[in-house]
Specification:
Elements (H helix, E strand, L loop, with lengths): L1 H33 L10 H18 L2 H9 L8 H7 L11 H12 L3 H4 E11 L3 E8 L4 E7 L3 H22 L7 H14 L2 H14 L6 E2 L12 E5 L4 E2 L3 H6 L7 H16 L1 E2 L8 E5 L5 E5 L6 E2 L4 H14 L2 H11 L2 E2 L4 H13 L12 H13 L2 E3 L2 H19 L14
Parallel strand pairs: 4-9
Antiparallel strand pairs: 1-2, 2-3, 3-5, 6-8, 7-10, 8-9, 11-12
Helix pairs in contact: 1-2, 1-7, 2-3, 2-4, 3-8, 11-12, 11-16, 12-13, 13-14, 14-15
């Protein structure tokens, strides 16, 4: 019975939020038509913001799949207005932790032993928490300090409930709205992400793969996993300490050469995106720590590989060609790069892609592309995409553009730039 009540509560809360969002859009449209005004002429920014705020508050209260949905919306600047992207991307921030008693059974069930037989110490207070899991500090019997990532015990049930409710609401909305936005592909994408993220064994494999990519380059450190203690719902890994990449005062106090932070960080992501074709797709500041390397040079600890992703063959070269063609403003090379990356337009309208590139370059600080996908440039690009008849924007490009934009945001917090072209050389 408690599960049934919980399911009804979640479904009704999701339905209520969806209804409020729909009415905020439809009410003004109906009123404008009644008064003979053009509904398309109305400034929608205030309505977008109110709806984004309500969706955010509902997600934080309900957690689970709704947080993941908001995180995906926060990455899809090509589909959703800026108010949604900026508001819902805040769902990457710390979520309230569950009580230890709620996650203890998961650890013991996955390991097949009482906690006391595996760990000499296990802190009951979480050091980090997110939408699907939380992390505790512990010590193995041999004294090794570890971090233990534990999936919430009821998350499968919550996700299935929320997906079912969201699909029903999307189907009803598409039936009754004359010009609906197609949410079902977004839900399909969310389901694919969740299927991967709920199996922690994939995250371990992704972390191991990135570690291998940097085995001859000390610029990046990936925590070691205790594979014998990792399972579908639990990860036991090396406990690492570092300074959050945006904490400049702490970085300076540690004697780390802050001037080298962004060149070295961009070099690491260039290697993953442009050379290796496998990258950490979620470089928000909470996932990047800094430590002091040789001579005070910065070294980076990357965390959380749930969104690590393979890129198609030739994708890195396509990104490089796009950046170089934008810098030289070679329009034929731009078109070739866009098409190689998988962009498609109605009627193969090349002018649309040129228009997007011009708007991006126009939003750069210097009026020309210098090698940095700033937040302003990527925002302008996605505004242009929404306004023009772009039929297909490759998801891989959206994730890479978002990653470069997040890195640009980190750089600006530090008073630096995230120039991908300058970081192509050794450093």
């Amino acid at each position: 019975m408690p599960k049934l009540l919980n399911r009804l509560h979640r479904a009704s809360r999701i339905g209520y939020t969806a209804l409020c969002v729909w009415l905020r859009y439809k009410g003004p449209q109906w009123w404008d038509r009644f008064r003979g005004n053009d509904p398309d002429a109305r400034d929608m920014r205030g309505i977008h913001q109110k709806n984004a705020d309500q969706v955010f508050n509902t997600a934080v209260a309900m957690r689970g799949m709704l947080i993941k949905m908001c995180q995906i919306v926060g990455t899809r600047s090509d589909v959703f207005p800026p108010e949604y992207v900026s508001t819902l991307s805040k769902c990457h921030d710390q979520m309230p932790a569950r009580a230890f008693d709620e996650v203890r059974d998961v650890v013991e069930s996955e390991l097949g032993k009482p906690i006391g037989e595996v760990f000499a110490e296990f802190s009951e207070t979480a050091i980090a928490s997110a939408s699907l899991a939380q992390v505790h500090k512990a010590k193995l019997q041999d004294g090794t300090t570890v971090a233990v990532k534990i999936q919430y015990p009821d998350i499968d049930h919550i996700i299935q409930t929320d997906l079912f409710s969201s699909r029903r609401i999307a189907a009803i909305y598409q039936r009754f709205d004359k010009n609906p936005m197609d949410f079902l592909p977004l839900l399909d994408e969310l389901q694919r992400h969740l299927r991967m993220e709920l199996d922690f064994r994939r995250e371990v494999e992704s972390g191991d793969k990135i570690r291998t990519l940097f085995e001859d380059d000390r610029i990046v450190h990936i925590p070691e996993f205790h594979h014998a203690l990792c399972s579908r719902r639990v990860i036991v890994m090396e406990f690492v300490e570092g300074i959050k990449v945006t904490e400049k005062d702490e970085i300076d106090a540690a004697g780390i050469d802050a001037s080298m932070l962004m060149p070295r960080l961009m070099r690491a992501f260039n290697k993953m995106i442009l050379a290796f074709g496998f990258f950490h797709a979620d470089p928000h500041p909470g996932n990047i720590l800094v430590t002091k390397g040789d001579g005070g040079s910065p070294e980076f600890i990357l965390l959380d590989f749930g969104l690590a992703k393979d890129l198609p063959d030739g994708f890195g070269m396509g990104i490089f060609e796009l950046m170089f063609s934008m810098m030289t403003f070679n329009e034929s090379a731009m078109l070739r790069a866009f098409k190689e990356l998988g962009f498609k337009t109605k009627n193969d309208d090349d002018n649309t892609l040129i228009h997007i590139a011009r708007r991006m370059v126009g939003r750069s600080d210097s009026g020309s592309f210098q090698g940095e996908f700033t937040e302003e440039m990527t925002d302008e690009m996605f505004d242009a995409i929404r306004e023009n008849p772009v039929v297909e924007v490759p998801t891989d490009f959206v994730l890479v553009a978002r990653a470069f934009s997040l890195l640009s945001g980190i750089a600006h917090t530090l008073g630096q730039s995230a120039n991908a072209l300058d970081a192509l050389g050794p450093g």
